[in-house]
Amino acid sequence: MSSVPASRTHAPGEFLHNFHGGLKLRHYKRMSCLHPVTRPPMPEHLSLALKQHVGDRSIALVKPGQQVLKGEVLARPASGFGALLHAPTSGRIAAIDEQPVISRQHPVDTCITLIPDDRDEWHSDCQRMIPDWRQMSGEELLKRIADAGIVGLGGAVFPTHRKLKGHWAQPIKTLILNGAECEPYISCDEMLMREHPEQILLGAQIVARTLGTVEHIVIALEDQMGEVEDDFKRAQRIVDDPRIAICRVRKIYPEGGERQLIKVLTGLEVPSGGYPQQLGIVCLNVGTAWSVKRALVDRVPLIERYVTVTGAVQEPRNWLTLLGTPVRHLIEASGGLQPQVNRLVMGGPVMGMAISDDAISVTKGFNCLLALRPEQLRDPTHSMPCINCSECVRVCPARLMPQLLYHSIRTGDIRQTSELALFDCIECGCCDLVCPSHIPLTEYFRLGKSQLRSSLREQQRASKSEQRHQARNQRLEAQQALRAERRAARQQAAADQQQAQQTIAAALARVRGKQARGSAPQADDSEESGA
Amino acid sequence: MKFSWSGAPHVPAQTSVANVMLQVLLALTPGVIALSWFFGIGVWIQLLLALLFAYGLEYLMLRWRRQPVKPFITDYSAAVTAMLFAVCIPPLSPWWASLAGMLFAIVIAKHLFGGLGHNRFNPAMVGMAVLLISFPQLFTHWSPPRELAEVQLSLSQVLSIIFTGNPIVTGGWDALTLATPLDTLRTGSARGLLVTEVRVAPIFGTFGGLGWEWVANWYLLGGLWLMYRGIIHWRVPVALLATVVLLTTPLYLFDPDANPLPLQHIFSGATVLAAFFIATDPVSGCSTPRGQLLFGCGVAAITLAIRRWGAYPDGVAFAILIMNMFAPLIDRYTRPRVFGHSE
Ligand code: SF4
Ligand code: SF4
Fold first, then answer.
1. Any idea what DSSP says for residue A253?
2. How buried is residue B194: exposed, middle or buried, by Cβ count under 10 Å (0-12/13-18/19+)?
3. Do B117 and A386 touch (CB under 8 A)?
4. Are residues B288 and A393, on separate chains, in Cβ contact within 8 Å?
5. Secondary structure (DSSP) of A125-168
6. Which of A25, A369, B215, B272 has its CA 20 to 30 A from that of A12?
């Protein structure tokens, strides 16, 4: 199985390819799709983490006590790489301090606390008329996307303007909108697509204009989203763009993963460590496209998003949620937790991150809040030895050998770990789910990656200091050689001088001899000529 | 409010080692019932003996290795080993055969190699191979299938044969045992008889051995059920059976007098059992897709070679052990191409 160049003959999405492995999971999505999406009541305070994107840290542009308006920029990345953060509503900045956030490495981080004043008053920037996006250049569109603070809303939170910018070997011909939300429970994209298919298509068109060279816009849906497809078909008639194709893909987890989706739609594999752009493809989440439309048409920066609140809550549903809304507030709005819930997860059950504190607030990448009871979790206390059943090999979409990776990480065999291509693990958790021995494989792989990274850094440092050492040796040698040269030159010079002196002395002697007979001339200048 | 933390995934366990092993045991059961139907109550006694020794030794070894006893004793892996061993030895074998077999299987092949998941070799086959080599005469004492049995043994008679080792009936062992189909073929061809001549012996059935073919059918059924349940996958069994057919069909077509029908190979001896239950043992087998195909092919080829040229009538145990040796190497060179890597 090599990457078949089938896309040469088929348009993307026209012919569906397979990817290796994956799992059929029950979806549990219906329960949160029963109510139309509305906004929860305004929380008493919003807590906005400064860093909600991939990239550099941000610096706050406001001070405690300051009054801000809705849509005003609150924070800016320290350098160019990152995304702006805007005030989700008008109010007063109460504090800028350390608060719990969702992160593996830093459980607390700087957050801006905003007390809403319930006036919801827009900042003038968001009121100003802007020209029609169809009249704008790609540059201008990019700048406005950046100004709106848009990041990938599928969970990757990569700054969208960065994704759309850049020079690639191939022109970007294919834009994929990822609506294949393959993890169980999460339904925010599905609800968004049901409610705003036209706006999503519009957003896609704007992105396509930004990229300039797009020939295909593929909307990828899941197999069971028949209704959504109909909605899109209707919207497509209104938008009327021949580039748009709607495509339903098999529902196999992790089909919605970027790399898997690209493989399914085009038959191409994104090179290891590379980017889809290298294949002339850009893949965006449908929510991101919607935010682009809102920024360019409605002049609303990214201040709210669809969030699914589901699992063991009284009324599972989707909310259009302001960034910074505390998780606790969302739970209350959804009728509270069912008894015995002991795990909160941001995201889906398979890849989501556990939240240990319900004071944490919604960020740009927050797609789903999932509450689980103990019986919906795996008993973490006991795992058996690996019995080499190769179930993990069978389901791994990256075609790795998870059981060997696990052994090499456990034994600390760094070389073997990197030879088995640990960095190509997408942490999808498939291996974990099928392992009869209940080994927390994915957790091992996360650990292994950080070990591998630090050992690579170590190596780099070592090779750098090795280089430094060599450079120093060379420098010393060069210095020595130079010194030796100088010494030789000096000796030579001394010898010359001696000779010259002797000559002079001889000459002097002669002169003196003559002098004795006649007058005495100035002879001491001769020193200089000898030097 | 605070909540518990752990890394993803947050999903309840779908299966367990015990569950997998239990399903294997279940799948083996029809075959065992058929075996006892044809070869008598001795089959059950061998099974009980093997289980008893297996669990006794497993417990002692776990204690000795200071391992937690409960999770390992309840994983049913020792039961699978015992069951596979018990169905491979003659039903009237003396009691110490099970003890010796389980000593080598559980103590040496399993626990001295590091316990569950660490055994390089299939424990049941290690036990079998040791007996085959050390006490080859044991395996000449197969009971005849019920249709051909001269004497009907009662339970107490069977027990006394197993525990004293004396053939208590008149006529001795000769009255109690009958050469297996594979033995018959072997001795037949050694005497220069044609296969067709040998095959008229009453021990042969429609396409395999009388009785044997039915047992094999039930193993096949159990194996297919395991496949349906996703406990085993098609690669090893299909590769193994296909190789048997592919290697024997040309010979048969070329000279049907000297070579048995391909189906004969499949339905006699332990071929089907090996294809679905022994060669599919995960721990000592291959784990890459291509590796599993090779593993199946290898077992089949070596089994056939031993049947034809070797000193033993059925070479399944040795074939499995030999391929166990190669499994890590095969795995090493058949790793799949990682997604996004070039070939
Ligand atoms: S699924 Fe678990 S037990 Fe099976 S091979 Fe993989 S790690 Fe080992
Ligand atoms: S988590 Fe990594 S190793 Fe496991 S199945 Fe997914 S990609 Fe493969």
1. B
2. middle
3. yes
4. yes
5. GGTS----GGGS-HHHHHHHHHHTT-B-TTTT--BHHHHH-S--
6. A25
For residue A216, which phi and psi values (nearest 5 degrees)?
Answer: -130, 130
Q: Which residue owns the Cα nearest ligand 1 atom 5? A: A388
Phi and psi at residue A185, to the nearest 5°: 75, -40
Indicate the range of A316-325, B7-16, B137-146, B310-319 predicted with least confidence.
B137-146
**In one letter, which amino acid is A399?**
R
Is-contact B317 B132, C-beta < 8 A?
yes
Q: Which whole-number Å values give the CA distances from B135 to A101, B44, B100, B147, B173, in the listed order?
A: 69, 22, 11, 28, 16
User: Under DSSP, is residue A347 helix (H, G, I), strand (E, B) or coil?
Assistant: coil
The CA distance from A203 to the nearest CA of chain B, in Å, is: 30
Q: Say whether residue A424 is in contact with chain B using an 8 A CB cutoff.
A: yes
337-376 in chain A: CB under 8 A from chain B: 341-345, 347, 349-358, 370, 372, 375-376
Q: Facing residues of A311 across strands? A: A371
Q: Which residues lie below 8 Å from residue B208, measured CB to CB, with a gap of 6+? A: B181, B216, B263, B264, B266, B267, B268
Per residue in A65-97, pLDDT tens? 999 999 999 999 988 789 999 999 999 999 999
The position carrying tokens 């009054």 is A67
Residue A54 confidence (pLDDT) above 60 = yes
| B70 in reach of chain A (CB within 8 A) | no
For residues B92 and B214, what is the distance between their CA atoms, to the nearest angstrom?
Answer: 20
Q: Which ipTM score applies to this complex? A: 0.88
The answer to whether the Cβ–Cβ distance between B20 and A436 falls below 8 Å is yes
Nearest CA to ligand 1 atom 2: A435
Return the CATH fold of A6-42+138-346: Rossmann fold (3.40.50)
- Ligand 1 pocket residue status of A226, Cβ below 6 Å: no
Least confident of A13-27, A513-527, B227-241, B321-335: A513-527
Name residue, tokens 């994209």.
Answer: A189
Q: What single-letter amino acid sits at A351?
A: M
- Is A392 a pocket residue for ligand 1 (Cβ < 6 Å)? yes
* Angle, in degrees to the nearest 10, between helices B95-102 and B42-64: 30
pLDDT of residue A364: 94
> Where along chain A do its domains lie?
6-42+138-346, 386-482
Mean pLDDT of A35-41: 93
Tokens 């906004």 belong to A39
| Cα angle A462-A464-A470, degrees, rounded to a multiple of 5 | 105
Q: Is A400 part of the contact surface with chain B (CB cutoff 8 Å)? A: yes
